Amino acid sequence: MNAPFLVARLGETCRDALKQHFAALPPEDQRLRFCMMPGPGALEAYVDGLDFAADGVFAVRDDDLTLAGVVHVAMDESAAEAGISVLPSHRGRGMGGALFYRAVEHARNRFVRTLRMHCLAQNPAIMHIARQSGMDIVMDGSQADGELALPPATPASITNELLADRFASYDYSLKQEVAAWTRLARNVALQ
User: CA 96, CA 94: separation in Å to the nearest integer?
Assistant: First the structure.
């Protein structure tokens, strides 16, 4: 992890925040994230179709509680696939790498042996993360597929994931408190 980002697991109550995150991505970023230009209603349908119990959905929130970066880890019996997006104003500081690392830990600790990423070859950020992580990358025209063999779960990896979840939960609570106090201070100042 390049920077100390706290990556929190999201649940059902975060669907609207996820829709706002994906809608806030510029059209080209939406195309790069989903490997196609999402049509009308496609982003909402994607978020509405997320299975929070079976998959892992994780995010980094900024100080305003906006989802600055998101990773969806789609799980099946043999592998997991990660899809990452980071808002433009939060790029270049290692947030994508932190989200990827969280996806690796999540999959690994659920006894999945392979993590995959599918992207457009012209997606430099995801290609950088894939190369940096040691993924085997296969190019096929404009498409790229990365695959990373995951080590088995260990007591340390499971403990690290539990601690990361706790710290992210505390971080979110603290940011909520700060936001509430900031709103209160603004209202008092306006009176």
Answer: 6
Output the DSSP codes for 151-167: PPP-HHHHHHHHHHHHH
DSSP state at residue 13: G
Q: Which domains does the chain have, with CATH numbers?
A: 8-166 (3.40.630.30)
Integer distance in angstroms from the first to the last C-alpha of the chain? Answer: 45
Written as six digits, the tokens of 178 are 């700060």
- Four-CA torsion 75, 54, 87, 130, nearest 10 degrees: -20
Which helix (H) or strand (E) segment is 48 a member of?
helix 42-48
Provide the 3-class DSSP secondary structure of residue 128. helix
Distance CA(16)–CA(33), nearest Å, equals 18
Residues 6+ apart with CB under 8 A from 176: 65
Asked whether 31 and 37 are in contact (CB, 8 A), the reply is: yes
SS3 of 169, please? helix
Q: How many CA atoms lie within 13 A of 159 on its CB side?
A: 3
Rounded to an integer, what distance in angstroms lies between the CA atom of residue 26 and that of residue 31? 9
If the chain, 191 residues long, is cut into consecutive pieces of 10 residues, what is the mean pLDDT of each piece?
Answer: 77 96 94 88 95 95 94 92 96 94 96 93 90 91 92 95 92 90 85 75
pTM assigned to the model: 0.89
